[in-house]
Amino acid sequence: MKRLWTPWRMAYIKAPKDKPNGCVFCAKIKAAREHDRDNLVLFRGRHSFIALNLYPYTNGHIMVMPYQHTSNLELLDGATLKEMMLLVGDSIRALRLVANPQGFNVGMNLGKVAGAGVEEHIHIHVVPRWGGDTDFMAVTADVRKIPEMLPETFDSLAEALKQVRRAVRKKRKR
Ligand SMILES: [Zn+2]
Fold this sequence. Notes:
Shape: globular
Bound molecules: zinc ion
Number of domains: 1
Radius of gyration: 16 Å
């Protein structure tokens, strides 16, 4: 993937990494559900959950994560792995509804050397892509709008996910 022009990520790079209260992803889940919007938690499943990335590469950058705090993908059980992939699918459907991307980057960075920002708690990135999005973002110089758009993006994606989940439930009942 071409490196995107993402100046707001400096806030993340400069933020202290040794948080006294532990893992940032576990903190999202331990918090009460009423704080899900503040914590950018879009959906809670049985074994895993969907959240918007606070330091996105593009608008609509989603992460699917297990509840289990682990840096080892190979330690997750089958039910968790299956649900995570289903939630990746739901995320793609929701992004299609909201933003009509032309493609997606879906993947994981395992370990710091592989580029993981939070290496102690694995997560699958779902990044929507549009043709020429790197150039577009660099040229318009309006990239700083993306983090400001997080609450708006959250609301439309949360609504789209509800639609997607309803459709999935209906299909399973048939
Ligand atoms: Zn964790």
